[in-house]
Fold this protein.
Amino acid sequence: MSRPHHLPHPFFHFGNPFRMISPKGSNLSKRLLLLLNNFEETLARRLRKLNPKDKDGDEKWIDAYLDISVNLLNICNAFSSEISRLNQGHLLLQCVLHNLDSSCSKQFIKARSSLDAWRQHISSKNPRVENCSTILNKLVESLDLPKVKNSAKAYQKKRKKKKNSAKGKVLMRAMYGVKVETVFTCSVFASAFSGFARKLFDLNVDDKYMWAQACNGLQTSINSEIRNLYSSGRFIVLKELEAVDTSVKKLYPMIQDGVDPIEVEAFQNSISDLARRVEGLSQGLVDLLTKEVDSFFHLVLTGHDALLCNVSKSGTVSDPKLGCKVVERV
């Protein structure tokens, strides 16, 4: 009998391949069984890689460090911008001294104009320094040491990860000390740069740390002194800057009202005093701050960059280009 033409074609028009691999009534050969097992193990391994996993302890330490370092870099940038403002003020004072080197009345007018510009410049606020409080608040919120989970599932892996967990605890305890010192120091400078006592932070360090008493004592001493200065009506707590401001206030009326021949010597002494204090502001404060902030910035940036490059090579982060582009990102 002929085969009906209306019947559908078989799914495998070339025949059933599984019958070719495993004929009816026969068992898989060892070679085929090994091939099948290898395939299934490979497939299982690749599927497991696609399944997202919770972050383990090491990644938490890495994330914490990276977050802290980014905040510190932002603070460094804010302080650098304020140092640049001080340098701009220094240029105005140099113009004042240059114009006062002449007895021409027109030069006195220029000197007075430069003094007006300096006084206005120094009393203005830097929004980047104002934002430091927000950044420091984030660092303060991160001061609590992360707690290690003790669930039944975590306990099964405890012995295997005991060594890494111990390293993580040591690292975080050391980072805690660095963060406390950094927050305290940065808050002092943020307060001094901004002219507000509210920028200060009072961090209560637990007595379990060997350095707690020394830290708490230093905070109490420095913060109390700064608050007392502000409460007395002063808005400048940087002594080099205050010295210049005092000289400017003394010299300004002499330029505005004109110099009496009898007061020429006092006038010249005021100019010399201003020149000396301007140099002290530049070399004693601005240059030193520039050097230290730049050094701290590069220290943080180097550690941040090195960590990102290492974790990208080890496959801890999903973006292998992240570490190598940290300078560009910052």
Q: What stands out?
A: Residues 264-314 form the longest helix (51 residues). Confidence is low (pLDDT under 50) at residues 145-155, 317-330. The two ends are 83 Å apart (CA to CA).
